[in-house]
Amino acid sequence: MMQLDCDTLIIGSGVAGALLAHELAAHGDKVIVLEAGERVHRHVATERYRQAWNRNLAAPYRQQPWTMEPDPEKPSSYYGPYVGQAFNPLFLKRVGGTTWHWTGITPRFLPTDFALYSNYGVGVDWPIGYDELEPFYVRAEHALGVAGDSEDDHGSPRSAPYPLPPIPLAYSDRRIAQKLDAIGIRVSPFPAARNSRPYDGRPACRGNGTCTPLCPIGASYSADHHVRKAERLGARIITRAVAHRLVAAADGTIHEVHYRAPDRSDHVLRARRVVVACNTIESARLLLLSRDKRHPNGIANSSGLVGRNLMDHTIFLTTFRLPEPLYAGRGPQSIATLRLGRDGPFRKHHAAAKLFISNDVNIHRHMSEILDHQAMWPEALELLRDRVIHTGHIGAEIEQLPDPNNRIELDGQRLDPLGLPLPTIYFQSTKYTQDGLRVWQQRVADMIGHMDGRIVRSVVSTSSHHPTGTTRMGTNPRNSVVDANCRAHDHPNLYLVGGHVFPSMGTANPTLTIAALSLRLAEHLKRG
């Protein structure tokens, strides 16, 4: 009989892998977690960011020469030439994953998001419903430390209160909210995995305003928190370990996982069960990399759907100036949501949207515009001050329907530093999303007009860095990669968990739903 290295081998230490490792280690399982990247030390990352001249999403994190991540300045260096529209979701390969540089916004899905086809005749339904996931939403909110108003369910019925009171709106949010209230549009705080008071060993938010790319004090949740908890319970974390091949036995069970170290040496682990908990891009990439004679299209891919139905939120951000000062930039970058757009009969015809106010201040953008106009000191300083205090932003994240033509494939010509093929993205936003984009951009423009504001620009991107859908969940091996319990149809001991199992994505940021699915999977695995 083959000797096993552990009960459960988890690939990826982001929010899905970290929560799962903690739950199973607490249950007494022998757990190993493979992580392609290294550990991040918050004080070191904070100092790197402080000294950086270009403060983008990658600034706090040192390059890892043995692996690659999408570069905020040159995403095509990872994804290659775009096929279709530019599409550049960013993520981190580190212990804790992309929760190191997220805004912490944690809305639940709406009940109708799980039954889009049944309700509106578009998209697909999930094999599970809201009521089935609701108890795990509660547990996820307590695990991440979500701050929110328990009297306001945002359209998603609750069985228990949030663990923390809401983060208060920033001054600029309140000023904009007052103006929008006059035209019947309500503004309220998002639920957020950001401490409004000390919680679970982490401090309260101090309003540093750098949530992306880094919370300098750890008030915003990052998944390394649960990695450390899992380690204290006996889980083993192997860093700098790039999983690149799953090997299936003749009976379909995954009996080996191969990973590559920075020196290009290959290593093998064996486990009773394997869980792929990487991000949406890398999970599909790993399954496709694992092709062999018995599985020429890759592991778990008898359906041909691995890598397909790639989704993300199309996002726009409309920048405007008001006659009165707003003083944006004090407090978290984003905490306010406009209470419209997420659901309704209109979804039969065009995409829903989650509208928000951004409290961010892009000093570099303002300064470069002023210098482009050849303003001189001290005039430039006065212009900068005027622009900063009068500028606001309203934006929206717009749902995307699943489309099998939107996909990830392997590029045999471009290799990463370990000699592994990089992904190529094929992506084209659907008409449903484009129609929604036009509707919501115009709605925001009308709001700004009612506030006597002047629009400066409206920038659109096909990615909010919320990629989902490449190993979709479903009812049978023909229409999906995994079943309702996240088990691969083709392999009895292989599980996949993360945004990649989403059949559709609604308008909610995906992290809380990823966390809830991970906790639900943990309960399933505990039962044997």
What do you see in this structure?
With 528 residues, this protein is of the alpha/beta class. 25% of the residues lie in helices and 18% in strands. It has a 6-stranded antiparallel beta sheet with strand order 4-11-12-13-10-16. It has a 5-stranded parallel beta sheet with strand order 5-2-1-9-17, covered by helices on one side. Strands 3-15-14 form a 3-stranded mixed beta sheet.
Mean pLDDT: 95
Termini separation comes to: 20 Å
Strand content: 15-25%
Helices and strands, in order, run as EHEHHEHHHEHEEEEEHEEEHHEEEHEEH
CATH class categorisation: Alpha Beta
Total of DSSP H or I helical runs spanning 4+ residues: 12
Task: Let me know the number of strands.
Answer: 17
CATH level-3 fold name: FAD/NAD(P)-binding domain
Name the overall outline.
Answer: globular
Largest beta-sheet details? 6 strands, antiparallel
Oligomer: single chain
Q: Percent of residues in helical segments?
A: 25-40%
